[in-house]
Amino acid sequence: MKIMTLSLLPCLVASMAQAEDVTIALDWTLNTNHIGLVVAREKGYFADAGLQVDILPYSDTASTALLAAGAVDFAYMTALGFMSAKAGGADITALWVTMQREAGRLVYDSNNADITRPADLEGKTYAGFGSAWEDALISTMIENDGGTADYDTVTLGTGAYEALATGAVDFTLEVATWEGVNSDLLGREQSHFIYSDYGVPEPQGGYIGSRTAMLESDPETVDAFMKATAKGYTWAAEHPQAAAEILIAAGDFPNEDLVRGSMRVIDEGNYLTDGTTSVGRIDEARLTTMARFLYDSGVLRGTDGAPLVWPGTVSDWFDQGWMAE
Predict the structure, then answer these.
(1) How much is the pTM?
(2) Can you say how many angstroms the Cα of residue 163 is from the centroid of all Cα atoms in its chain?
(3) Which pathway features in its UniProt record (predicted)?
């Protein structure tokens, strides 16, 4: 038996040496949006597919930019980041979408008697993050509720949540599955408005994509990576709390209950699968509707700053042929 075990070592070493190195850049610091990637790595799904996957930490360079430049093989991208890059001519293609429901929402202090509806945001102060998308979203909500989109903006980034809690600003935007959970853990009394209730299309969110050239030159690697990724997210959807513990063990989270709470909200809110759309499936109709909204709102612009013209279709923005049996 010992002789047989030793004789297998060269084969095992050779197999490990042949694992293909693959990189994926994240859109933000590690969080539950990335749960399937971590599960796929930690449970050996990537290794079983012959891949050695390096999940790169978030950097100052957007994941879409890294992907478009060919610095990484894959990227996890926000919906806005992906659509902006693609509309601007980046040679990238979406292969996957994580969230089947919109997790974003507009939040305000529940004790602020001056705010009961979006129209009340007129004249108030918004803590923002510096993108044109925010103004298009907020203005649409206010105007569709009968108000005038006239409000002040201070760009604070992640400092927006503390500013709202202290009363320095009147409202901001948050992700229910992360910042929303954190606010609950901190005991903050906050209320919210749902974007789609006031005329903003509900997109899917969290795209994973690759360079279009890689789809053509190395479809086997794309297929192997995406199927292992899908397996990771599917397992996480079926075992949310066990997946949370895997993510906690793999990361560095000051508050581990935030991770556990986030996965609970994702599970209870049917974010990874809404019961009708399978995990990871891109809905072309919803992609089209959101892209058209961004074009019409003037959010998507060229390098010269001018609004881009609606191309008529976004059917070539994504490819899920790897899902075919």
Answers:
(1) 0.91
(2) 24
(3) Cofactor biosynthesis; thiamine diphosphate biosynthesis
Burial of 96 (0-12, 13-18, 19+ CB in 10 A): buried
pLDDT tens across 125-171, in order? Answer: 999 999 999 999 999 999 999 999 999 999 999 999 999 999 999 99
Say if residue 83 is in the same domain as residue 138. no
Structural domain span for residue 170: 104-198
Are 182 and 220 within one domain?
A: no
Residue the block writes with tokens 């060269």: 10
**Co-location of 312 and 216 in the same domain:** yes
CB-based contact 48:227 (threshold 8 Å): no
Q: Are 201 and 283 in contact (CB under 8 A)?
A: no
Q: 95 pLDDT band (50/70/90 cuts)? A: very high
Q: Distance between CA atoms of 243 and 297, rounded to whole angstroms?
A: 38
At residue 305, does pLDDT exceed 50? yes
Q: What is the pLDDT of residues 26-59, one digit of tens each?
A: 999 999 999 999 999 999 999 999 999 999 999 8
Residue where one domain finishes, among candidates 198, 221, 243 = 198
CATH number of the domain enclosing 145:
3.40.190.10
In angstroms, the Cα distances linking 116 to 97, 107, 175 are 33, 11, 20
Give 262's Cβ-side CA count (13 Å radius).
27
Secondary structure letter of residue 129 according to DSSP: -
Domain count, the chain: 2
* Average pLDDT, integer, range 3-20: 51
Q: Does residue 117 lie in a domain region?
A: yes
Give 248-289 as a DSSP string: HHHS--S-HHHHHHHHHHHHHTT-S--SSS-TT---HHHHHH
Same domain (yes/no): 88, 209: yes
Based on the fold, state whether residues 27 and 131 are members of the same structural domain. Answer: no
- Domain termination residue (choose one: 172, 198, 224): 198
Dist CA 31 CA 35 (whole Å)? 7
Pairing state between β 104-109 and 190-193: antiparallel
